[in-house]
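Subject: Sanity check before I submit

Could someone independently write out the structure tokens for this chain? I want to compare against mine line by line before I put it in a report. The sequence has 127 residues.
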Amino acid sequence: MKKLIETLRSLGIQIPEDREEAVRRTLSENYKNIKEVAKIRKRLEAQRDAWMQRAKIAEEALKGGDPAEKNREEDETMEFRNTVEMTNNSFCRIRLRAEYHHSVIRDGKPGTRAVMEGSEPKGAPHE
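---
Independent answer below. Compare away.
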């Protein structure tokens, strides 16, 4: 506060000694220096950024659902796809085994070329 009063005096504004204390009190209530303003600005910008982030999350939740829920649904979808793929692979292995055993019983030779290639052996009955 002394710097401000000295600045006023350097500009030619004279403050009487008896009024100096009142001027200091009034200026301290209404005056902020650059450091104080920067500190307040930084705090307010942090609050603004936090609110903007919350607003963005809320908009996304309204637009396409909760991001956490979306991630959980994607995980469940991937898990389901993996299960379906494993089931299909198991089914294909079972089917190939059945075709192999069918060819062994019919032809008397294990692993005929037709079964290995995944096609019907010659003369096999169609199901």
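---
OP: Matches mine. For the report I'm noting this point. Helices lie at 2-10, 17-30, 34-64, 67-107, 113-116.
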